[in-house]
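Predict the 3D structure for this chain.
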Amino acid sequence: MPDVLQGGGEGQPPGRGGRVAGALVVALLAGAAVWQVADGSGGGAAPASAQRPDTPAPTVAEPVSPSPTMIAPVVVVPPATSRPRRPLPWSRLPTGAPLSVDLASGPVVVVDGQARDLGTPSRVVSMDSSRGGPVLLVQATGAVSLEQLRPDGARLVLDDFAGDRRLPRGVAVDPTGRFVAYGVTAVVPGNNGIVVRDLRTGAATVRLRTREPFAVSDWTPAGVVLDVAADPGGPPYLWTPGPTRPRHIVPFAHSSGGPVLLASSPSSPRWLMTRPELGCTDLVVGVSRRPARSFCSVALSGPVAWSPHGDLVAGVGRDGSLLVLDVADGTTRPLGTPRRAVPGQVAWSGPRTILAVVTDRSAAHGAVLRCRVGGSCERAALPVELAGRDIVLAR
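Done. Predicted structure below.
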């Protein structure tokens, strides 16, 4: 706001000298403003030639293109981010060794240590490891695509979802790494379904139309694990890819809409669930009508990951920090995650090592923590190509 020009004494009108001086100051300010606009600096608008052109709308590739697009390796300098007012929750943690797992951040995908840029305005939403390269769910302006990034840099589009009339719900790769399953919900009632595709060819091998809007949660040796992608949801289902209908793992509880699936064992038909109305965590073995074991002193919530090496499950406790539950005896162990760090994804990288993607409470900054069961956490060194936001670990 410009300063107010005042006259001589208090309560007196401005004199002639004050009016002349005021006129000179106004003229000088006006001349400076004109010079700034003409020069393109200061608070004025930039000339039309200096303005950035509108970003063109992205072109959606056709599904299963016979000639996949090739993308070159990327060398990216991460953009400068504003320094937060408070220290980040993990700022005092030591920095450990670089990550050896595949991951993505925004449009940048790092596979086997090599970074590739999918191009703006793409953003990787999920990343699943498979035999021929990771399967990515990529979000762009007005469209979502399911694709595989091949080792040579080719992007094979498996399915695309333009607009909001048809949306993907969960993605999982089978234990052999050759097939991918995903749920599809549609605006038109009764057009929901589950699709299975062969990753070698991109062809759909199974299409099952369902009344329920299913979301694919996992693919274990026991079958494809499904959630109900609706509010209030419902108990999980197990489905063997084919014409057979999905079946309940546990019966439906009409009072709460649950039990709700937390995690699936990657090696045996076991599931960890929670009953929202009781705050209990239940272990279910096989397809049964009753939990094999209940841990009502443990209120576990997502994100949750079951170790492929045994009976340990990592998840979020009541206080918002990460802990490990041993489903064999119900004991828990905290992981020592810093306060104010919000977990977004959890993955196991060894029998007693957990990787956790965390953000601050504003979700403006992110990091990957490497935590050891019964020990402490450290910050994992990220590749320089990643900006530290929207980090996704390969599952």
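Helices lie at 16-39.
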